[in-house]
Amino acid sequence: MATNKNFEYLGNNFQIQLLNQIILDKDFSHSIIDVIENNYFENKYFKIIIQMIKEYYKKYEHTPSFDTLEQVAKSELQQETAVKVVLDTVKKIKDAPIDGVSFVQEKALKFCKQQELQKVMKKAQKIIDGGEFENYDTLEELVRDALLVGSKDTSMLDVFSNLDQVLDDDYRHPIPMGIPGIDRLLKGGLAKGEIGVILAPTGVGKSTILTKISNHAFNLGFNVLQVFFEDNPKVIQRKHFTLWTKIHPDELSEKKDEVMTKVKEIKETMPNELILKKLPSDTKTMLQIKNEIRKMIADGVKIDMVVLDYIDCVVPDKNLGDEWKSEGSVMRGFEAMCHELNIAGWTATQGNRASISSEVVTTDQMGGSIKKAQVGHVIISVAKTLQQKEMKLATIAITKSRIGDDGVVFENCKFDNAMIDIDTESTTTFLGLEEQKEERQRQRVKELLEKRKEREQQKKS
Description:
Elements: H1 12-24, H2 26-32, H3 44-60, H4 66-76, H5 80-94, H6 101-130, H7 136-147, H8 163-166, H9 180-185, E1 195-200, H10 206-219, E2 224-228, H11 233-245, H12 256-269, E3 274-278, H13 286-298, E4 305-309, H14 323-341, E5 344-350, H15 371-375, E6 378-383, H16 386-390, E7 393-401, E8 408-416, E9 421-423, E10 428-429, H17 430-460
């Protein structure tokens, strides 16, 4: 097929059957219409007919019926002879035999796929000749798109499809975070294809909570990829060892034998994998990360969840000329990757300057573009005052959730960074938190007035 430029070598009847299938089989026409070209056909009138079909599809988003095609020919063709030949050809197409249509569809798609690959190879040669090696990932994506010609679109389905699965109690199959109060409100956790975002100011514990999520998912039997940019791999390993052994990180080296025994036991008994991957900060795009995960999957490594620590270290695939738009595109790329690869995705993002002193971090305190918040299925914020840091406490809030309840605050919950111990026992709404804040302020005023009154009485006495 490499030397063939059109369908001529397959014969006249093949082309008639192909046009028949493009009109009759809506799924097939949808998969091939954008990549099939007029010059792939041998006959002048076949070229006219496919052109009319493509123009009609572009305008109405579906192929015309045979009757409609005849009407289009009568209204658009000027020469009477051309109209007659086209109408006769349409009749032959309409009466084409149905035997061997699977062969016709497969052959046509393979031909179009090869033509698309040849176009990509020409672009590749130009990139190689020009030394533009930074475009490698873009080129790889073009090749992949060419290979996907003819793939069925699984994003569309009939509303009545898979009724038993849709109505099943566990239709989402979520992966829990390991924080009971939050998991309950998220109806079990995050499902594959969904993304969650941890929002917190610097130094609060984004890596702590993401490591806990990774560790808990692994303990439940899921395959987890934990990607990080700024931490040393040994630091992340030690965090996991602390979670498994409940030994303080400062004592891990002292109790090396005990740690080794526990870690080896887990390695031998768990059939799944927890993979740690360090990447350079501010150089990797989401496309490059996706390609690396794809390679892992191609090599036989199954991934159920990816934890990206954190999204602000990823650079946009394209320079959009606007930093905020670029940040939004990175988060959308993360969501698209998780949906495409059917994995659950957790990441984190920095809060802005105002978030540092906030008792509760809200979505509008997200650093950079608010578009990052629009993409996430779940956003969980973590805030710590100086007093809370000293007391190993934090205020955690579910500020956005497409899954369950949001606007829920876990005030002064246990958040021990060293032991990676997070416990949410009590909840209150944002409104309740404001009421409590006002009550605390009233109580402070009352205490100040009483102290002032005591001082005045002491002066009198």
